[in-house]
């Protein structure tokens, strides 16, 4: 099961909170945090609690959001050259998703910074697609990762190496 810790803004649009505060889900990467970006087309910004890896996808249609989250996370992992077996295993665990309220202020802060950076990148290049934009964001140094691997893309690589070793 995938746990998505959503901001109040996203919960108002996507549905009520179901997950308990102590739910971690069954995915190896752990919970994901999410908020909505109010661009011309509303966008969901997801950030993994463990690696701080960002993922972007359109909010609409809301009825299929949970299944599209799983697909977009799988795409993001594939783009970052995660082993196919790992991506398939994560996708299996993400077939069921539950929304919950945010519980980690540090991740919410990183998500806020990613939202600002995404807006800047989008302003500089309005034609950039969401996957490419997320790749750019993943290379951003994040203070919670300074003592480890500095940026989400490097943190993901190190996490994958420890999981698949």
Automatic annotation (TrEMBL):
Residue ranges constituting the DUF6933 domain according to the UniProt record: 3-155
Matching InterPro entries: DUF6933
Pfam families per the UniProt record, alphabetical: DUF6933 (PF22016)
Lineage top rank: taxon: Bacteria
Name this protein carries in UniProt: DUF6933 domain-containing protein
Organism for this UniProt entry: Prauserella muralis
